[in-house]
Amino acid sequence: MSVFPRRDFHTILPVTSKGGEIMKAKILGAAALAAVAASSAPAWAGIYSDDATRCIAKSTTEADRLALVKWIFLGIAAHPSIKEYSNVSAEQRIQIDRQMGALVMKLLTKDCHKETVEAMRFEGGGFLEKSFTALGEIAMGGLMTNPEVSAALTNWATPEDKAAFAALAAEAGRPVPPKP
Description:
This protein has 180 residues and is mainly α. 67% of the residues lie in helices and 0% in strands.
């Protein structure tokens, strides 16, 4: 899954001021980088993309990772089959898209400028997908460790399901997890 959306940013960011023009240009620039990434992704990861990925990961704060998770959630929630379960206003969507655009541009053009240029120069733009996929995994991992999220994702299992899984584990010679 690509972190970068495939959609028309002109419909998301109406231009009402010079600041709007600048933000729109930044996000369109990020979209252009994503297009480069999609068209020139190498089949392997090199040292420069690894360096860029490490820099991007270490340059984000917990707030940055939460902004990324919100943006991913909004992207997923836009799917017609689950849209009804999300109540996100157009203003909230615009705000979160702008936060994501600012984060991407900060990471690529400021915090990790050197690593971005080197990765693009020596390995092409394909590193972007790898770097932001890794960042998404880090951000989602942090979210998944929350006890409320963890509990919500295990509510589906009935006592019968848990017994069946315990039987599978025993048959496979694996220790049966303790009951909470």
